[in-house]
Design brief:
The structure is a homodimer. With about 260 residues, the first copy, chain A, is an alpha+beta fold. Chain A has 8 helices and 11 strands. In chain A, strand 10 and strand 11 form a beta hairpin. In chain A, helix 3 packs across helix 4. Chain A starts with a helix and ends in a 37-residue tail after the last helix. The interface between A and B is large, with 48 and 48 residues. The structure holds a DNA duplex (30 and 30 nucleotides).
Chain lengths: ~260, ~260
DNA sequence: CGCATACTTGAGCCGAATCAATTGGCGTGG
DNA sequence: CCACGCCAATTGATTCGGCTCAAGTATGCG
């Protein structure tokens, strides 16, 4: 089996064998974690950067006995820990939500990689850049959206990220987040997450059983969430759902082209 | 007069003359904007990266006729636009709040700079890294803090950032944000910002006249905000306020050392 | 002086939090 | 195979922080 980074970078341009080797080096070491285990706790040494190779993980912090904040979900092919590169000790927790396979590598590998290949460096930036706009979009959720909108937006975000990282079907996917995880991620109470999720379900927009999630009315969700796919570098081909019920003035806004990396 | 980047980098290590020249190159071009002007609008070409040399600026987006979200305030010495490096068109607006001096430079300059000096590259990362933890901290505000806490936290953040970027006194500074800016930044309504600010004022924790801001009880604010200075790379010497009224169990938490950049 | 743009204050309402209790699945051990 | 306990999900009742609407006050500026 290959590397998940190689796959991801191929998303943007074709790699030379040397570049492929450089990337593979980042995933030389693989560590398995069980659901719930802490990959790297706040305060620990943070010389390493991580690639999530498999499983769902979160970056979070425990503010108090019973108040937590989750900053991000890191999935297959995502990078974690660059935000703390310049600190001596990690500022936040990095935790496996499900069983997970993680590839840690020393941060110096990055410098080497950048030195060896301009294209890799650029693509690395591309990915980091996407991650930041991801944060910005969740910012909007936290600051300016209702519970229903927050949930709709997050569900779509996840569905698209999963699809981009190789998950075949975008409207049917595993969803290991518990309701209190969603709460801490979206700035809600678990109780209210429950009510809102059930409202989405009752309307038939979504369905879920155990931790299998189904999006039944993609475009309805899109409209609720006012979702802007630009920030994910989503190629148009990923967008077939929007077609039906297309008589919508705001449509053009997200019928946008992929920004080609340069 | 020198470069604000040079000053900022010196904060972390001493520069060789060559490195200083590389940095100066980033600020070769300077453009002045008037308060309210848009430096770079959403949708525009974003080949440039910006250094804020003087003035207050924000990164924001207009979601609707009367709903806006502000992601960040960029001050003297801050960098803007790297988050969009990989996109063809800017995703967010970059706006001058006060009269401002901005130094745009082509993104390629960054690659050159990275190639020429390992130390500069690392410090650049240090700064970006701080910016991300800044975002994370505001995340906590948006998701898990009350209006009073949000305001207290933001006020302290700004006061410390200003001080770090050369502003002499940390508890007395200009504050050009209007109440509806604060609202859009912290996920509140302008009306509620008003009430909460006045509550802080009534208690005597802060004072402001026009756009001059005074922090009267720093440690009280710190306690309200549950502020963690670690994420700003704050050297201990900046911390004299905490001394008085020190009989506080949680004190040790933020009496932490600066993480030296490496 | 008159208009515009903040800021301020009050009244009423609503979304979401909190508290509390119940349900249902699932693993463990008897 | 059932009893027990745990934990997530669910549901109801109540409270509250913050929003909206609306009116009034500064302050500044052409």
């Amino acid at each position: 089996m290959g590397s998940c980074m190689v796959g991801r970078f191929r998303h943007y341009f074709s790699l030379t064998p040397e570049e492929e080797n450089l990337l593979l080096r980042l995933e030389e070491k693989q560590i398995e974690y069980r659901a719930g285990e802490t990959i790297r706790a706040k305060g620990e040494n943070c010389d390493d950067i991580y690639i999530v190779r498999d499983g769902w993980t979160i970056i979070s912090t425990q503010l108090d006995k019973d108040v937590r904040s989750i900053f991000d979900v890191r999935l297959n092919g995502d990078i974690a820990g660059i935000g703390e590169i310049s600190f001596e000790h990690a500022l936040y927790d990095f935790i496996a939500l499900t069983d997970a396979v993680i590839c840690p590598f020393p941060r110096d590998h990055l410098s080497t990689l950048f030195r060896e290949s301009e294209a890799l460096a650029r693509t690395f930036y591309t990915i980091l850049s996407r991650d930041q706009s991801l944060l910005y979009e969740r910012f909007i959720s936290l600051g300016r959206r209702t519970a229903l909108e927050k949930l709709a937006h997050f569900i779509i975000e996840i569905s698209m990220r999963l699809q981009m990282s190789g998950h075949a079907i975008s409207d049917h996917f595993p969803f290991p987040l518990r309701q209190d995880d969603l709460a801490d991620l979206l700035g809600l109470s678990a109780v209210h997450v429950n009510r809102s999720m059930n409202e989405l379900k009752r309307h038939g927009y979504i369905a879920y059983d155990k931790h299998e999630f189904v999006i039944r009315e993609y475009d309805r969700l899109l409209r609720i969430a006012d979702f802007n796919p630009q920030f994910l570098h989503t190629p148009q081909t990923h967008w077939h759902h929007q077609k039906k019920d297309g008589a919508d003035g705001a449509d053009g806004a997200w019928r946008s082209k992929l920004a080609p990396p340069r």
